[in-house]
Amino acid sequence: MISVGVFIKALALVCIVFVFVFIVYMRYKRIKHEIQIAGEAKIQEMRHEFSSNVTHELKTPLQTITGYAELIAMNALEPEEMRAAALKIREEAFCMNDMIDDIVCISDLNECTKNIVMEEFNLYEIAENVVSSLRHEADKNGVELILEGTPLVIYGSKRLVEMLIDNLCDNGIKYNKPGGKVRITVGDGGVTVRDDGKGIPKEEQERIFEMFYRIDKSRSRELGGNGLGLCLVKLIARRHDAELIFDSEEGKGTTVRVIFKKQNN
Ligand code: ADP
């Protein structure tokens, strides 16, 4: 038989344990709720930042297009100025189109459920395609494009990997100087793009992979940049489970290495 004293003590202990569990549970619920609210606020803030960035980025070329269209409508341009105006309108329209394509691509890459065609292909051949498509741009800037390395079969999306290499080489050309070099090396499980251009200051290096982030906004726009290139590079590398190694020194140049994990040789 249990004595009344022991029974009361046991009951008190059960009550204490119950109250303790109840307090812990309530605290857990409160913390979970706070995290949820903080998460929602963060998502809301990111959405807001995204839409104000997109609006701003699209408004700039639209203002130029509207301005030139108005001048044409008012017959305010000399015949020889008309061609330059039409070319400017076309250039701005192309920029807007590229930006929309990049935004759609970023959104697809962020959506993990979106199916991407993956296949085996030769990374060296893709680098060759990029080099021949950028050759003219490089020549115009007085930058030498050098491709070296060996054939390397990887598994991934040809279209996305080409976009990745294209963005890295395009940056190497844009942020370079006449007489500069952009060297693309295929091998050791991946591709390396190295330039001897202006480099990126240490304090900026963390942010350059963010959407729309540019060190010198007006210079980048002048050069045809939209601040989405490195964000695409980061997301494409992530989608391929590839390692992205970045190294840059102001005044010396930038090296980006992408190592693909799923390769056959
Ligand atoms: P953008 O379209 O402006 O080139 P990116 O996302 O490709 O946008 O790059 C972000 C910023 O990082 C650029 O605006 C530029 O200032 C800097 N950057 C990127 N690559 C290089 C490079 N190879 N050398 C120097 N600066 C670079």
The chain-level structural class is alpha+beta
Number of beta strands: 7
Elements, N to C (H/E): HHEHEEHEEHHEE
Q: Give the count of helical stretches.
A: 6
Dominant shape:
elongated
How many whole angstroms does the radius of gyration measure? 27 Å
Largest sheet: 5 strands, mixed
- Distance, first to last CA: 77 Å
Q: Ions, cofactors, ligands: which are bound?
A: adenosine-5'-diphosphate
The strand order across the widest sheet is 2-4-5-7-6
Calculate the mean pLDDT score and round it: 91
Helix content: 55-70%
Contiguous runs where pLDDT drops below 50 for at least 5 residues: none
Strand content: 15-25%
Descriptive report:
The protein is of the alpha+beta class. It contains 6 helices and 7 strands. A 5-stranded mixed β-sheet has the order 2-4-5-7-6, with helices on one face. It has a two-stranded antiparallel sheet with strand order 1-3. A hairpin with a 2-residue loop joins strand 4 (181-187) and strand 5. The protein is elongated and about 110 Å long. The protein starts with a helix and ends in a 6-residue tail after the last strand. It binds adenosine-5'-diphosphate. Adenosine-5'-diphosphate binds at residues 167, 171-172, 175, 195, 197-200, 208, 213-216, 220, 225-231, 254.
Please render the helix and strand layout as text.
Blueprint: H1 4-73, H2 79-110, E1 119-122, H3 123-140, E2 144-149, E3 153-156, H4 158-174, E4 181-187, E5 190-195, H5 217-222, H6 229-239, E6 243-249, E7 253-259
Parallel strand pairs: 2-4
Antiparallel strand pairs: 1-3, 4-5, 5-7, 6-7
Helix pairs in contact: 1-2, 2-6, 3-4, 4-6
